[in-house]
Amino acid sequence: MKNKVLYFKGDHEVREIASLTKIMTAIVSLQLAKELNIDILNTYFTVSNNASTTPGTTAYLRLG
């Protein structure tokens, strides 16, 4: 099934590039975690002060 669209919804809707970036980041992160056998439900990361105070984000990251 190469080069065949299986499903689409709202393909003509305009979306903000940030939304697409967040979706692609999530997809790539989950794929990598699966490849590396990372338990995503029990893995934690430290968030820097810079990341937690960056304006324009809606990730709601907290320092620590």
What does the secondary structure layout of this molecule look like, with pairings?
Elements: H1 17-35, H2 49-53
Structure description:
The protein has 64 residues and is mainly α. Helix content is 38%, strand content 0%.
Question: Which key phrases capture this entry?
Answer:
64 residues, mainly alpha, 2 helices, 0% strand
Rounded Rg: 16 Å
Question: In one word, what is the shape?
Answer: flat
- The tally of strands reads 0
Largest sheet: none
Distance between the termini: 45 Å
Task: Give the helix/strand class.
Answer: mainly alpha
Give start-end ranges of low-pLDDT stretches: none
Short description:
The protein is mostly helical and 64 residues long.
